[in-house]
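Render Carotenoid biosynthesis protein in 3D.
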Amino acid sequence: MAANYSRSASTILWFVTSLAMILLLTKTFFPGIGFPLLLLAQTVFTLLHGSRRYGWRAILVFVGITLLVSNILENLSVLTGFPFGNYHYTLGWQLFMVPLGIGPAYAATGYLAWTVATLLVGAVRRGSGRLTTIGTPVIASFAMVAWDLSMDPTRATIQKLWIWENGGGFFGVPLVNFLGWSLTTYVFFQFFALYLRSYGPEPRATPEPATASHVQSLVLYAATAGAFVIDFLSGERTIVTDALGHRWHTGDLYETSVLTTIYGMIFITVLAALNLARRSGAASANLPDTTRHASPASTPADTAA
């Protein structure tokens, strides 16, 4: 019964992973419905994947912390300019002065950045040392800001989903925006790490093995990067102006976006994938000869990793 449930849950998660990947790579062509459906699929993935990896309580804590911290600091910046700079949104329904979809977007992509960071630094578990407890949030923050580095100029200067009132040197986006992202994402990642250190899963007796759950997160982080490649290939070449009247060639924005994607998000993806492959090889090498060639059975411990 437990094995059947585990296989069913795994199948559902792979379905959601595939759906989110497709939506990430096609949302540009369906602007009216692509983003809402994508956000829903990403949220479902975060909750299902996180519940198997950490348990329902922990993943709900992660989502709650992310929603709270991001909304507070986004609203604070709209009002005061700290920590992102002076800007305002042009999107629809808002929670105070921030669109309702912004918080879930932080949580969904933030969870992917977090899982990538656990591959690069280490999983944070109950009683984890300081290096992992602090290092994993720091690297997760870099993985998250790499996303914004590729996204912000195209979404703000071209699509004008939000407006930078004082412009900025990075195609209309100010430096302080990215510093604000580093601060904001680090804060909610660090809170989550501290929660896991006190209340998370017990540490493993052996190193965490490579599992399908790692591949799923890595695939979606890579697909998030792939969306910017699609933008580069399909985006209209024209001229746009920012809030200060500076003129920008959209072709330059798309080209810069794909460059930062390749040497930012895709670079991070490759590093994490190599680390995952090394971990998988090490686990295989440590298996006894009698089990190395046997058909592996699905276990709760493996699927929850």
